[in-house]
C-alpha cells in the first residue's frame, strides 16, 4: 500500500485501550449512579404524592447544584424508573425532559412537550397557552399524568417575559381543570436565581429543594472506575491514572467536583494512550490529558498575573462568596460589599463606587467576570456577577499571593 494510505490503514487497525468508548459519551446514561442513591430516594419521596392521590396536587421540586454534579442524569434515570414502577401500580405516568437552553421560549417548550407526547399540534396560529390546554385535554382523555423536567431552567427565567414565567409556573391558576395532571422538576445551577424571584412565583417553585453537592475525590474515583469497567479493555487503565483524575477534580481536594470533566479527562487519557500505541493508560497519560483540558484555565491564571491590585481584590471577593455560599453568581451590590470587607482585611482603602464598577467592566472585557441580568421575574433587575473559571483552593492561594506581592511592592 502506498503513502499515506499505509499510515491510515495501519492506524485504523491499531489496537485500542477502548472496548466501547460510547460509554464515556455525555449522552450515555449509565446503569449505575454511584453516590446518587440518596438523591433518587429524595426525588421519589418528593413525587410520591402523585401516587397517593393522583391529580390532587401538582408537585414541584427544584434540583440545584454546580455543573457536572449529575443533575441531568439522575433526573433522567429517576424519571424513567419511577414512571415504569408507577405504571405497574396502574397509574399512567410519563416523564418528559426538556432542555430550556435548547428550547429557548415558552412556545418551543410547549411544542417539545407535545412532541414527546406524540401529540400533533397545528404548526402555526396557537398560543402557548392554547397548546397547554390541548396537552391537558389529551392527558384527561388518556387519564395520564406527566412530570415535566425543565433542565437549565435558569435560562428560561433570565430570558422570558414575566407573563410567560407566570403562566408556566402558575399553570393551575390559569387552567380550569379538575385533576392536576402536570408536575414539575426544575433544574437550576444557581439557587440564588430562585431566591430573588417574586414571592408569587417563588412560592410555586421553591417548596422542595434538593441539593446536589460537588463530588469528592473518593466519589469521583467510584464513578470513574465504573466507566473504566464498561468502556475500556480489561486491565487497560492503571489505578494511578484513575486516582490522579479523581484527586485533581475532587471538591475536597480543591477541584470543582465535576463528574463530566473527570470522565472527559479519562476519555482523553485513553486517546493519548492509543495515539502513542500504548496498551495501557498510565498516570503520565492522565496528567497529559489533565493539562490539555486545563489549558484554558491556565491561560486565565496567566492573565490574573497582570491585574492591578483592586481588580485582584474584586476577584478575591467573588472567590470568597463562591466558597461561603456554595453558588456561582452574585448580585453586583453583594460583590461590592464583600470587596469592601476584603479591602479591610488587606488594609487597603476601598475605591469609590463608580471606580469599582469600572474595574468590574474591565474584568468582564478581559473574560474574567461573566455578567448576566437577573430575570424579569425577579424583584427589580440587577446584574449578577460570576467568575468564568472554577474556584479552587489553589487559585485562591494564588490570588492571595499576588495581592500580597503587589502590596509589598507598593510599600517598597
Ligand atoms: N453519580 C454518577 N454516576 C455516573 N455518572 C455520573 C454521575 N454523576 C454524573 N455523571 C456523569 O457526568 C456527566 C455530567 O452529568 P450531568 O450532565 O447529569 O451533570 P449536571 O449536573 O446536569 O451538569 P450541568 O449543570 O452542566 O448540566 C454525565 O456524563 C453523567 O453521566
From TrEMBL:
One of its GO terms (biological process) is DNA replication. The keyword Nucleotide-binding applies. InterPro entries: AAA_22, Cdc6_C, Cdc6_lid, ORC1/CDC6, Orc1/Cdc6_arc, P-loop_NTPase, WH-like_DNA-bd_sf, WH_DNA-bd_sf. ATP binds at residues 69-73, 215, 227. The keyword Cell division applies. Residues 315-399 form the Cdc6 C-terminal domain. Keywords: ATP-binding, Cell cycle, Cell division, DNA replication, Nucleotide-binding. Involved in regulation of DNA replication. Belongs to the CDC6/cdc18 family. This is ORC1-type DNA replication protein. It comes from Acidianus manzaensis.
